[in-house]
Amino acid sequence: MESSVGILWLTWALVTLPLVGMALWWWNDFRYYFPHRKSKLPPGHMGLPIIGEMLNFLWYFKVIRRPDEFINAKRRKHGKGEEMFRTHLFGSPSIIVCSPSMSKFVLQSSDDHFKMAWPSIEIIGHKSLVSVHGTAHMRLRTFILKAVNQPQSLRYTASLVQPRIVKTLESWAQKGRVIASHEIRKVTFENIGKFFASFEPGPTMDSLAKFYDVVIQGFRATPLDFPGTSYRRALQSRKKLMTIFREEMEKRRENKEYATSKKNDMLNGLMELKDEYDKNLDEIEILDNIFILVVAGYESTSLSIMWAIYNLAKYPDVLEKVREENLKLSKRRNGQFITSDDIANELKYTNNVVEETIRVANVSAFMFRTVSKDVMYKGYKIPKDWKLIVWSRYIHTNPEYYEDPMCFNPDRWDKPSIPGTNQVFGMGLRTCPGNMLARLQVAIFIHHLVVGYE
Ligand code: HEM
Question: Any idea what the CATH number is for the domain that residue 187 is in?
Fold first, then answer.
């Protein structure tokens, strides 16, 4: 009797478990494919219910630390020529875009086709430049471009950031041994705090830095608002940051003299910005934008500087060439700070190093869009409301476009890259408005490091 019950259980397990496993395995594909069964969807697999392919994604990113193998595995399975794959990531049915031509198509299309859409919109803010569209986006974008990316603003930034960079390097020499990534974050944050909101080092800056670090950790996390998640902690830190900025705005509104003394910073610029009806931005618009500008400028720039130092340490021949070029400039400047014009005109090799650093670092590995309406591309349907993940790092590390891509080779920038294959700062309407500001800060850091220190 007992043995027949055991056999029944075993039979049940042998039949049921594989069926349940298969049902789970195909659940998402069936659920999302069914409404589009009359069309051809991009190849791929959409993973398990709710989490989709997130475990697979994390395996490649966090465990084996070879992110692009996630795409290579799909290309091996579905065809090397495929430009996109369907999947389910960050809580949404998605299409991964991994070719220059398709990402160009996506990034250069209007909002009617593909809308900018980060998964963590609650952290980014509904009224930030990154979240708004149409005229509201253009107005903010034009202001930010003028404030950070024009020759005049770059000249100002170059003079603003150098004293702190020089002081930081002096302190490194005194300490003898430092964790460069921590120190770089600190000085980059101080420079950004000064440039964007005229904050000086002190308790407010320390609190800001602490809260921003938490925000950045939650920025790319799956948006799960549960106690203990990075996302929840980031939302809480965002609230605290908003309070600090709100208090600063109130001070400026109440005290004209105080506001005038901070005239040149981004926060004042946003407070004075008017729309087409001559109306100022509302408080949330100002707060969302100052908040996101610091996020965008802080993390990406400090990571790029860190990678620049890493690569200079790893490639002594590159360091030697950079040093030679910068010593020549330093001699000509006779101890004065360098300018953005010097960098553009006299530091050709250093600029190549900056370009190569940013390509290899891939600090902005993906761009996110939402599909506004059904779109056809090369016979495949891209369904409305799905997400698009433009996997730009795959393009920058692909030997089809960059010879020996993992080798740090600044000389490759002596000639332009293959059209469409350099998307480190994005493309189209959303191209990074801080691209020159970032390049400038990396070049300045390299300059002072190599002319002053071994
Ligand atoms: C090496 C450093 C940087 C990299 C690699 C980088 C990369 C990018 C990329 C790829 C995009 C396009 C996103 C998309 O299309 O979805 C972008 C957008 C943006 N970046 Fe940067 N960025 C850097 C530095 C900065 C700095 C210093 C600022 C500060 C002003 C900044 C502010 C922004 C903003 C506000 C956007 C949104 C633009 C829009 O929606 O119109 N970035 N960045």
Answer: 1.10.630.10
Residue corresponding to tokens 């602490």: 210
434 lines ligand 1 (CB under 6 A): yes
Cα dihedral 391, 395, 398, 401 in deg (nearest 10) = 170
The tens digit of pLDDT for each residue in 359-382 reads: 999 999 999 999 999 999 999 999
Question: Is there an atom of ligand 1 within 6 Å of 438 CB?
Answer: yes
- Tell me the pLDDT of the chain averaged across its residues: 93
| Residue span of the structural domain in which 131 resides | 123-452
Is 296 a domain residue?
yes
60 domain residue, yes or no: no
Residue predicted with more confidence, 3 or 85: 85
Nearest CA to ligand 1 atom 2: 300
Pair of tokens at residue 126? 């509904």
Residue closest to 68 by CA, chosen among 413, 444, 398, 447: 398
Residue 387 bridge partners (DSSP) = 94, 370
How many structural domains is the chain composed of? 1
Segment 287-298 shows an average pLDDT of 93
Residue 437 lies in a domain: yes
Ligand 1 atom with the shortest distance to the CA of 430: 41
**Residue 68 counted as domain residue:** no
